[in-house]
Write a structure and sequence with these properties.
The structure holds two protein chains of two kinds.
Chain A: E1 2-4, E2 18-20, H1 26-36, H2 41-44, E3 55-59, E4 62-63, E5 80-85
Parallel strand pairs in A: 1-5
Antiparallel strand pairs in A: 1-2, 3-4, 3-5
Chain B: H1 15-20, H2 22-25, H3 31-40, E1 42-46, H4 52-62, E2 66-70, H5 95-106, E3 111-115, H6 124-129, E4 133-136, H7 141-154, E5 158-164, E6 167-173, H8 181-184, H9 197-200, H10 206-223, E7 232-237, E8 242-247, H11 269-272, H12 280-284, E9 285-286, E10 289-292, H13 294-302, E11 308-311, H14 315-320, E12 326-327, E13 346-349, H15 354-365, E14 371-374, H16 377-384
Parallel strand pairs in B: 1-2, 1-4, 2-3, 4-5, 10-14, 11-12, 11-13, 13-14
Antiparallel strand pairs in B: 5-6, 6-7, 7-8, 9-10
Helix pairs in contact in B: 4-5, 4-10
Amino acid sequence: MTIYIPTPLRSYVGGKNAVEIEAGTIAAALAQLTEANPELRQHLFTGEGKVRAFVNLYLNDEDVRYLPAKEDTSVRATDTLSIIPSIAGGTAR
Amino acid sequence: MATPVESIPLPELTTDDLSRYSRHLILPEVGMEGQRKLKAARVLCVGTGGLGSPLAFYLAAAGVGTLGLVDFDVVDASNLQRQIIHSTKDIGRKKLDSAEEKLKALNPALNVVKHETMLTSANALEILGDYDIVADGTDNFPTRYLVNDACVLLGKPNVYGSIFRFEGQASVFATADGPCYRCLYPEPPPPGLVPSCAEGGVLGILPGLVGIMQATEVIKLILGKGNSLAGRLLLVDALEMKFRELKLRRNPDCPVCGTNPTLTELIDYQQFCGIVPETKEEKRLKNGIPQMTVKELKQRIDAGEDVQLIDVREPYEYQIAQIGGKLIPQNDVPQRLHEIDREREVVVHCRSGARSQKIAEFLKQAGYPNVANVAGGILAWADEIDPSVQKY
């Protein structure tokens, strides 16, 4: 599957905007992603391993929080996972 | 689609209006009635910066009758790369005055209401209460949550836009059945984890793209036409020039718009976002790192003391301005520790003091016994020591 990496987190995955990962579930894909890029882990997960409240995960266009199996949802090679953290910019001095 | 301005008696169009808005009047989706709705509409733009500039400009051009502007800032040269409502001659001027002048020049019939204040829990309900629609173009998390909660409590749609570097987000929150910003992001990130545009930079055109999407949504809400972005998050990546859309759902457990809301009045948003005012002690020592003022640094350099000054900014920033530090960009520090002498005191600086604080903490963890951070960084140096150093 393709995992889209948002701008604020690209520096933790070597500047890439998307990463291809072969995995059976969302959780397994994220585990692979953070194993390969350990610095990313603290930005996505709390110390207890829960996805942080200011990071949203979307499987295709669906919020993972609203999928029946949540992060254990199985995925196919054609699926995309988007990581959408909150950004605040607007007026910017 | 219900429009927020439906219930009020609509004003008549003047002969000037008929010629000015002729291209709207021949659109079946606008027409006379739609143009009269626009004239009746009262829209509040929170911020007259990157997003607020194109937003306010197009709303004024489209014939929105009343535009409220909230800002307390003055125009700075570094704003002009994207804040197109302000001009070079406006540098140093209040953004509100500069924006009002441009908007009235474009459309003299426009009623501009200036709110020269920072939006706070104490004034938000009163200010927002006067408007039909709120457009959020702020640059910080406390104000985003404040605008959201106030909109939900007042039942006003919140037309949202946000940008970072090359990426933008837009949506419409707090409509009658739609989700709010808290449904999307229940909590803000801890301070310092997500860089602001001032730290991370932003492509100047991007707020134009996103601000105009916000303006489009405002106009559609007023007209009651089309499909609003309520319930959808539009993402734009300007570098790839890709637009994507994600589904947003109202969270039944949302503390402000859920089934059993626990948040029924405005709260302390600085505290909610983890921002606590600095104590005197923290001014001297932050997370165990002594904070050196630029005056102290200057005195020690002038006195010929052995100061190992490390500049952790990026090479392109170094080209803009530097104060004599050895350049080791923050991400290179772990691999280049051999270039930093452990036996000597290490003084770390960056642009504002934020990145260098993190690196100072890292060096201390890595076993450097004597590490200090330059509070305020190059910006403070330019303000207090040497005005010829270029601020950026």
